[in-house]
Amino acid sequence: MSEGQQVYLAFTIVVVWTLWTCRTVWREFRSRAVPTALSPSTLVVAYASQTGTAKALAEQKVAALQQQFPEVQLRALSELTLTDVQKVTRMIFVVSTYGEGEPPDNGRRFYRQLLRLVADGVNLSHMGYEIVALGDRRYPRFCEFGIQLDAALQAAKAQRLQPMLKHDRMTQVTSDNVDDACVWQLTERSRLNGRASDGLYLLRLSTEQALPQWRAGDVLDVLPCYHPGSDAERPEHAPRSYSIASVPAEGQLLLIVRQQVNAAGQLGLCSGWLTQSLTPGAKLLGRVRRNTMCHLSDLQAPLLLIGAGSGLAGLRSQIAQRAQHADAGPIWLIYGERFPQEDVPLAQEIDQWLQRGVLRRVDRVFSRDAQAPAYVQSVISEKAAQVQEFLGQQGHVYVCGSYARMGTGVERSLRDAIGEQSVDQLLHEQRYHRDLY
Ligand SMILES: Cc1cc2nc3c(=O)[nH]c(=O)nc-3n(C[C@H](O)[C@H](O)[C@H](O)COP(=O)(O)O)c2cc1C
């Protein structure tokens, strides 16, 4: 081969190699550049979901529609703007209701924006829509967000293509097939507080079946007052949900259950059964329910855990998950109870985690402390600058406990402490997780 031919060959190889690399990079870029742009022919299935049920239903819908509508796209409402909506001609909304008839966190911004545009006289008459609303009839405002969203879309002159479908959580769950539920055995139950009333209990459950692979943040739906394997008929009670307090790597499923007692002194149906009637060794039927909005994938990011009472369950599972990873990011735990002497559940374990460095910082506060009564909200307000510094740009907030007694107060104090915009950003970037009941 002459020198000229050699140079030509080398040149050709370099060009082909460069083109090939560019093609590969472009393909990779394109495959990652989701979501793809919306066009008038795109059918958008948009969900707003707090604990993942509406999201899962929306995913099922997209899978079912793919054959008929190849251009179907799944989006969280938080990923959509009104400009997007003005581009498409057909949408299906799958939305749950949260709080006291409010939108879930990832639907709030979109809804606020929609209301603003409606007030400005926006016209969405080019768009047809359907709403699938998820709710729970035990709440006074059943499926309220679906209803409000429908009213706003009507006011914007969008066309309702189907009457709204309302799913009641209880009928949905009870009519589900419980065959894929797991039979659990209560191996141990211990009392976590020393007070005469408001017993808080740790339940250890094991199973002879393969251990389900749940994730921190998931929930166990328990069928109350039913002993699997006995001849007794299955009672007609709706399952009760409990945040799972452990991770599968621990080899057991832990629950932290508050014994509920009504004004007449009667024990709560499921909590009374779990904390009193059920004897160790007895079996129960429970199914793990995925709570995808409470799954934390970024284990390196700072994590601010806030909770009170039995909310410790959800917080414990997040700590246990990070305890499995040597390089996990820092955790700051803020936990509230009532009495400093009697109410320090899992004290030993938490202190060990603190010594091992799994927890960076722990603040315990007590609302009935004679010297310094305080709620978790007070810690956020008093340590506002430290909260802001701890969270930085990547930090996640995880709140677990009673919605009425704690959830709304925590959000208010966070907004005061780190600013409206930062909290909206946390919500938008799905870094604010709330497992509230
Ligand atoms: C704290 C809290 C508040 C709720 N408030 C309502 C409500 O006001 N109205 C309603 O119909 N359902 C309410 N629900 C029930 C949920 O909408 C229902 O469980 C739904 O299936 C959850 O769907 P998701 O997992 O997609 O968020 C509430 C649930 C929780 C945990």
Quickly list its features.
single chain; alpha/beta; Rossmann fold; Elongation Factor Tu (Ef-tu), domain 3; 3 domains; six-stranded parallel beta sheet; 13 helices; 35% helix; binds flavin mononucleotide
Give a structural overview.
- With 437 residues, the protein is of the alpha/beta class.
- It is 35% helix and 23% strand.
- It folds into 3 domains: 129 residues, Flavodoxin domain (Rossmann fold); 112 residues, Beta Barrel (Elongation Factor Tu (Ef-tu), domain 3); 141 residues, Rossmann fold (3-Layer(aba) Sandwich), CATH 3.40.50.80.
- The strands form 3 sheets. Strands 1, 2, 3, 4, 5 and 6 form a 6-stranded parallel β-sheet that branches. Strands 10-9-12-7-8-11 form a 6-stranded antiparallel β-sheet. A 5-stranded parallel β-sheet has the order 15-14-13-16-17, with helices on both faces.
- It binds flavin mononucleotide.
- The site of flavin mononucleotide has 26 residues, from helix 2 and strand 4.
- InterPro entries: FAD-bd_FR_type, Flavdoxin-like, Flavodoxin/NO_synth, Flavoprot_Pyr_Nucl_cyt_Rdtase, Flavoprotein-like_sf, FNR_nucleotide-bd, OxRdtase_FAD/NAD-bd, Riboflavin_synthase-like_b-brl.
